[in-house]
Design goal:
Strand content: 15-25%
Helix content: 40-55%
Mean pLDDT: 95
Radius of gyration: 18 Å
Number of strands: 5
Low-confidence stretches: none
Number of helices: 7
Length: 192
């Protein structure tokens, strides 16, 4: 039987994202954030392409993005309630890290595998933040899929996508546990 790292397993079995609206300042400093980014960058990366990058967004940048969201919402016909929710998550965040899926040309590594790697980076950053005592939440929403928003607001190239905004800050409340998937309903055991 393998040697189980019980504290890590307990952490993984009980981890819970914190709603972004419950996160407040202080947020990690640059020195505190660098180990979290380093941990996230150790995610599975077939071919060692690093098909992702980070954009650290501080309050003034998040406020600018909230303003851009209003402009884009009007152009896209986004409902006022949906815009208000998006703006509140941006304006209320003490810090967010945009994880950018930035695929690299490769004959060996399909673009979909590179996209999965960016998703793994999002989860690794979320877990690193939680393991370091911060509250964190992985968000996306309609702004992540609006090309004009991501290109104008974040400077993404046409080949890049926003994999997620990882909001990180001090948690003001610990959320209750939420229902989890029924493993029997989603697991198939194949013996032959």
């Amino acid at each position: 039987m393998p040697d189980i790292n019980r504290p890590v397993m307990e952490f993984l079995l009980t981890r819970r994202s914190r709603p972004s609206k419950t996160l407040t300042a202080p947020a990690p400093t640059r020195a505190e954030l660098l180990p979290l980014l380093t941990a996230a960058a150790r995610s599975p990366d077939h071919g060692a392409l690093a098909p992702w990058r980070f954009i650290v967004l501080q309050p003034a940048a998040l406020a600018r993005l909230a303003d851009l969201a209003a402009t884009r919402a009007e152009a896209l016909g986004i409902a006022p309630e949906q815009l208000a929710k998006t703006q509140a998550s941006l304006r209320g965040a003490p810090l967010a890290v945009a994880v950018i899926a930035a695929p690299k040309p490769s004959e060996k590594i399909p673009a979909i595998e590179q996209l999965y790697s960016a998703g793994a980076v999002c989860l690794a950053l979320l877990n690193a933040a939680h393991a370091s005592g911060w509250g964190a939440n992985w968000l996306s929403g309609w702004i992540a899929h609006d090309r004009a928003f991501v290109e104008e607001g974040l400077g993404l190239s046409a080949a890049e996508n926003l994999a997620g905004l990882i909001h990180i800050g001090t948690e003001t409340t610990q959320p209750p546990e939420r229902p989890r998937p029924d493993l029997d309903a989603i697991t198939e055991w194949v013996e032959a």
